[in-house]
Amino acid sequence: MASAFALQGAPIATGDRPATRNVLADAVRACRRHFVAAAIFSGLVNILYLAPSIFMLQVYDRVVPTRGGATLVLLMLILAVSLIVFAALDAVRMRLLLRASMRLERRAAPGILLRILGDDRADPARRAQALRDFDTLRGTLGGPTVVALFDAPWAPIYVLVAFLLHPWIGVLTLVSAILLGVLAVASDRATEQPLRDTNARAVLANREGDYSIGAASVVRAMGMRDAIVTRHLLERSDLVRRQAALAGTTGMYLAITKFLRLLLQSAALALAAWLAIRQDISAGAIFASSLILGRALQPVEQMVAAMKPLATARSAWRSLDAFCAQPAPGTATVALPTPRGRIDVRGLGVLAPGGGREILSDISFSVEPGTIVGVVGPSGAGKSTLLRVLAGAATPDGGEVRVDGASLSDWNREQLGRHVGYMPQSPTLFPTTVHANISRFAAVLDGEGEALDARVVAAASAAGAHELILSLPQGYATMLSASDGHGVSAGQAQAVALSRALFGDPVLLLLDEPNAHLDTEGEARLAATLRALSARGATVIVSTHRTGLLPVLDKVMVLQDGRIQIYGDRAEVLRPASATMRGAA
Predict the structure, then answer these.
(1) pLDDT tens figures, 332-350
(2) CB-based contacts of 361: which residues, under 8 Å, 6+ apart?
(3) Alpha-carbon Rg of the chain, whole angstroms?
């Protein structure tokens, strides 16, 4: 079954093939014709805005003096047709912007999501913010803010019409438009920096709030609740103060704008009346001048109201454009054969975030298919980091990892990932059903069915988790939560994660502390599973602190301070320890 994006004609990449250019700029460029058409319709809509003013002018100048009832009926028909066309064009304009928003979603969202989920080089907080920035931008481009931008260039047309009524009315309209324009620019400059600071504080407060919610159990257990609550209240108080100050400034400029608009409309009415007394204009022009001036000032007033969302959208655009301009996840130009599981690591190095100390340094080793390798060492030795790099979940700062002779960068990550079973130290399960977690969401792309169910049950059985899953409230249909514990015990979560790693009979298994929460019986069952995997030719690399899995290992790697101290056959590596123990006895 095709994905939702493919069904809608979206250019979603297959595997790791990302767009070669900035996906955001390309998507906006693809929506250009929608925006051009909306701008054209905006021009027609603004021209038809003159219909009521012209109607009023004709009624006072032609109908009233001549008492022409037939003329009045004809003018009413013309006005009704004009307003019907006006409403239709306005509706079409909004529909064009809606279509542009939907097209932007189809064209840009796949590439942005691929960058968010497909590469770990960008800062995690930046990746989390990228999709929110895109939603902000898409909402702005498809909403009333863009309408205000399209209406603003037509203010000079109304100024010109005002000059046609009388030069002094034109001068008043021009001065009024300039005055409100200056006010709009002043409003933008006065709120730009406070808005940027407030948005940054809001993002930080939301991020810290989410983290505190996730760590609520630790907070309660260690008596930090009152301190954390007070800290968040202080942060919220500062944020609310900033938001109130920003809203006050924006509201002040908006109120001044409305006041000036009403005052200037009344001034236009008074000026037109004075000119009519002098018989420089007709009586109908009195009301027409007020309407035209009001219409000329309306786009300016709309721009004042649109300054805040425009500033937010501009900030989102800059941030998202920079994010999309970063190198996309690596592409694979040639589909490689199904991997056999041979691993070669040469000169691997990983630095701590910020370029600090070395987590891994000059790691080199090889593993043949069908081999079970145990990685042991003290906490902080780099075991988890090594497995993350081997799985492609982290990018090394030096050296390379090769699978069947091909560098990880040469593999199509989706193709290789289907043959890799990775179980991190933290299960990292998704808030959906146990079935969907184990199947790696295969139903989204391939559809549900008995064949998929059989593969899920087979993976759970191989992990020794089938009976455990059946004991859950709804079995394989049990929903996991988004909390740290996922709504199940640590052992149950680990069993589901191991089942997911075994799904699809992978040829390369990377298991980080898979027996951390297992009892003796569970550990024996895991050992039998590892033997079966080795027997069918799978390569298994497992890190462990416990000795229960040592009998099934073929090779042992001892890590310390990010370096390999010993790597060899299990009997050779463990013999010195045994001899030392006998000597001590």
Answers:
(1) 556 788 888 899 999 999 9
(2) 349, 562, 563
(3) 34
Strand ranges inside 466-580, DSSP E: 508-512, 539-543, 555-560, 563-569
Closest CA to 572 of 556, 551, 549: 556
Q: How far is CA 146 from the centre of its chain?
A: 22
Report the candidate in 438, 482, 431 with the shortest Cα–Cα distance to residue 457: 438
For the four alpha carbons of 473, 474, 476 and 477, in that order, the dihedral sign comes to negative
Query: Which residue did the predictor score with more confidence, 138 or 12?
Result: 138
d(CA 366, CA 568): 10
Q: Are the beta carbons of 45 and 111 closer than 8 angstroms?
A: no
DSSP state of 122: S
Flag whether pLDDT at 191 surpasses 60: yes
Q: Which residue has the tokens 């319709």?
A: 41
Contact 365, 555 (CB under 8 A): no
Which carries the bigger pLDDT value, residue 436 or residue 121? Answer: 436
Residue with tokens 């003796």: 520
- From residue 525, alpha-carbon distances to 88, 182, 461, 522 in Å are 70, 76, 10, 5
Share of the chain above pLDDT 70, in %: 90
Q: 15: which DSSP letter?
A: T
Alpha helices in 119-224 (DSSP H): 124-141, 144-151, 155-165, 167-214, 216-221
Q: What is the rounded CA–CA span in Å between residue 438 and residue 261?
A: 63
Residue 329 has pLDDT above 70, yes or no: no
pLDDT of residue 584: 38
The domains of the chain, with CATH numbers, are: 20-325 (1.20.1560.10), 343-584 (3.40.50.300)
- Dmax (CA) for the chain in angstroms is 126
Element (H, E) at 231: helix 225-277
Average pLDDT over residues 405-429: 86
Q: Taking Cα atoms as reference points, which of 327, 401, 385 lies closest to residue 352?
A: 385
Q: What predicted TM-score, i.e. pTM, was given to this entire model?
A: 0.67
